[in-house]
């Protein structure tokens, strides 16, 4: 029991050190563009529309989180880790399309661990704190950012993991789930921007191809990097959080 507590304490300390170090390196770099879709960039009609679409998923996510924490209170530390991982990873930003930026999302890990509905809440809280504390994204565009990063991305990650796992290659499943969740987030963001700002020539499709093409330059290597990093974190969890992963039936109990 004492050894278990010490391992958890060590794990928490390492997470905090990594998060602070990463933030000091990345968080204080002067942003060229706002994170996600920035405040006030979307027309009012589209901003309201994405809020309405995102809210039901958030409510269902709250119910999912309540069930998880009531059934297994021991998983609260792992929930905090999933949220912290998303916050830290998505704090990395590279200038991209005007009014937005490219960055990892970090939602794949939480979606595999707790499911997409739970991740819709964790991702929404991350986006809310980033908009309030870091001036990344915004409140009017929060619904759009939540839909792309905290809803669609986690659902894609969850189902990709489920589809690949029958092959028995768990690390490949983790990599693909994380990388494709990252890519789909920016495909959806491109759709959102194209709907709000159709091109004069080519309309929605012309605008979508322009946005998606610019995003692809930075997002494809970022998605690959995020997939590899998530696999490393998974290996770490397999060593230090094995009991929690067994509880979630994500790895087999040791004999």
UniProtKB/TrEMBL annotation:
Transmembrane segments: 44-65, 77-96, 108-129, 141-161, 173-199, 211-237
Keyword terms: Cell membrane, Cobalamin biosynthesis, Cobalt, Cobalt transport, Ion transport, Membrane, Transmembrane, Transmembrane helix, Transport
InterPro entries: CbiM, CbiM/NikMN
One Pfam family linked to the record: CbiM
GO biological process terms held by the UniProt record: cobalamin biosynthetic process
Taxonomy, superkingdom: Bacteria
Keyword DNA damage: no
Biological function: Part of the energy-coupling factor (ECF) transporter complex CbiMNOQ involved in cobalt import.
Name assigned to this protein: Cobalt transport protein CbiM
Phylogenetic placement of the source organism: Bacteria, Bacillati, Cyanobacteriota, Cyanophyceae, Nostocales
